[in-house]
């Protein structure tokens, strides 16, 4: 019984931060990709549709990273 309580306390003491690590890592990779593409191509992203796509992906990744940080803290 004591072992079960210790295991329960260990599991509830700190939530898993895997979601934050994944979302933060993907966001960091996205930033590096955008930086490389922006440095290689002066007219990146090129069109209005491309710009909106980049902004949308960026916003989704930032919101996911922020939500995972709040939920795992």
Blueprint of the fold:
Blueprint: H1 2-13, H2 18-40, H3 48-71
Helix pairs in contact: 2-3
Key descriptive features of the protein:
0% strand; mainly alpha; 73 residues
Brief rundown of the structure:
With 73 residues, this protein is mostly helical. It is 81% helix and 0% strand. The protein is built from 3 helices and no strands.
Query: Oligomeric form of this entry?
Result: single chain
Count of discrete structural domains: 1
Number of strands: 0
Structural class given helices, strands, pairing?
Answer: mainly alpha
Largest sheet features: none
Q: Any idea what the shape is?
A: rod-shaped
Q: How many alpha or pi helices? A: 3
* Structural Rg: 19 Å
> SSE string, helix = H, strand = E?
HHH
> In what range is the share of β-strand residues?
under 5%
Mean pLDDT: 88
Question: Can you describe what's shown?
Answer:
With 73 residues, this protein is mostly helical. The chain has one domain. Helices cover 81% and strands 0% of the residues. The chain has helices at 2-13, 18-40, 48-71. It is rod-shaped and about 65 Å long. The mean pLDDT is 88.
């Amino acid at each position: 019984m004591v072992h079960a309580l210790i295991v329960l306390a260990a599991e509830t003491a700190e939530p898993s931060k895997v979601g934050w690590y994944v979302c933060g890592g993907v966001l960091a990779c996205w930033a590096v990709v955008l930086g490389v593409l922006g440095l290689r191509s002066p007219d990146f992203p090129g069109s209005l549709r491309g710009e909106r796509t980049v902004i949308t992906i960026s916003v989704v990744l930032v919101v996911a990273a922020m939500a995972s940080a709040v939920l795992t803290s």
